[in-house]
Write a structure and sequence with these properties.
The protein is mostly helical. The chain has four helices and three strands; from the N terminus they run E-H-H-H-E-E-H. Strands 1-3-2 form a three-stranded antiparallel beta sheet.
Length: 80
């Protein structure tokens, strides 16, 4: 199992800073986390060690890229 650095855990609003091009609002981030909640938890991208949601930055970034790539591929297949 890969070791994690707790310094990579940030609050959602901190995570969103500088990522407005991906999530233009907090509500868009919330939608993404609701739709992909199980996958984000499985990847340890979204954790709750003390009862509040924290984002594991490198894991969440990777999940955004991979989930987004899959959505793009599915859209392409659906229009073909």
């Amino acid at each position: 199992m890969k070791a994690f650095d707790t310094a990579n855990l940030v609050l959602p609003m901190q995570y969103l800073q500088g990522r407005e091009h991906v999530f233009p609002s907090y509500e868009s981030w919330r939608w993404f986390t609701r739709v992909h909640h199980d996958e984000l938890v499985r990847r340890r991208a979204l954790v709750m060690p003390a009862g509040r949601k924290l984002v594991n930055v490198p894991e969440f970034d990777q999940a955004v890229i991979e989930i987004g790539a899959q959505r793009a591929a599915n859209r392409r297949e659906a229009s073909a």
